[in-house]
Amino acid sequence: MSGTARRYSTQSCSAAISHSVHRRVILGVARSSFQKTGLQSFIKRKTSSHVSTLRSNLSKLTFKWRCMVSKRQETQLGSGNLLDFLNLINDSTKYVVTLAAGGVLVWYHDIYVSWCLLGSVVAVYVCKALKRAINMQRPAYARKQDPGMPSSHASSLAYLAVYLAIAWKPAQPALAFTGLLVAAFLIPLRVILGYHSIPQVVIGAILGALSASGWNMFGQHLILPILKSNPTCRQLLAAATLAALVCYMVIAFRSK
């Protein structure tokens, strides 16, 4: 074989090998990409399936709990006096708490009470904004049909209980513990009486507790030191808190 023929043969073999290697690389990358995409799709489907199953199970659990409580009350109480009493407590909670907060503000009107109550009003409207943004309906058996995630009642009660526990714990631990017990009794009524599901109440309580901790920390480290040394700022805080509380009272008393 001549030198020219050998050279052409060598070049052909090199080209064939290069083409084969290049083809295998492309196929490997494509296969890897396909496997990765398939794995991601599989994980996404499984995660979505598990979340849907968990949400469905929680809804079923809430519904069964509600039916069990109603049936037990009907069979054991007969006239339903306990249910009526719990409804009375639940319906009067926001009025009693709001009037008590206003009375405490008028009686003490110091920067600590003002800051706490201003934060409670802010937390209420943050919760209501989240409720509209999430737009999750209440359970099918609920007495109301507006969005219910998170529960604003649970959020407000948890805020006041946690904030007062933080403020009272060093000096009056018994009062702090009593406030937590009262909130622990009132918050589940929203589920028992058929206003919310369990997740809606739990998320509302968590939101209120986190709001109380964050608002207290924000005030202790940044706002309250300024208010202590500035009388004008203290007056502005008291006026803002009173105005916010009055607005909330008007809205609360006008709503059902």
Overview of this structure, please?
The chain is globular and about 55 Å long. The protein has 256 residues and is mostly helical. Mean pLDDT is 75; it is low at 1-11 and 72-79. The protein contains 8 helices and no strands. The N and C termini lie far apart (103 Å). 23% of the residues are buried.
Task: Considering the chains and any ligands shown, give keywords for the structure.
85% helix; disordered N terminus; mainly alpha; 0% strand; 8 helices
Write the layout of secondary structure elements.
Blueprint: H1 3-77, H2 81-108, H3 111-134, H4 152-168, H5 173-186, H6 189-192, H7 198-228, H8 231-254
Concise overview:
By secondary structure, the chain is an all-alpha fold. It has helices spanning 3-77, 81-108, 111-134, 152-168, 173-186, 189-192, 198-228, 231-254.
C-alpha-based Rg, rounded: 31 Å
Order of helices and strands: HHHHHHHH
Summing up helix and strand content along with how strands pair, one would put the structural category as mainly alpha
- Terminal CA distance: 103 Å
The backbone outline, from C-alpha atoms, is globular
Biggest β-sheet strands, sense, barrel = none
The residue-averaged pLDDT reads 75
Q: List how many beta strands DSSP finds.
A: 0
Portion of residues in beta strands equals: under 5%
Determine the fraction of residues in helical runs and give it as a percent range.
Answer: over 70%
**How many helical stretches?**
8
Low-confidence stretches: 1-11, 72-79
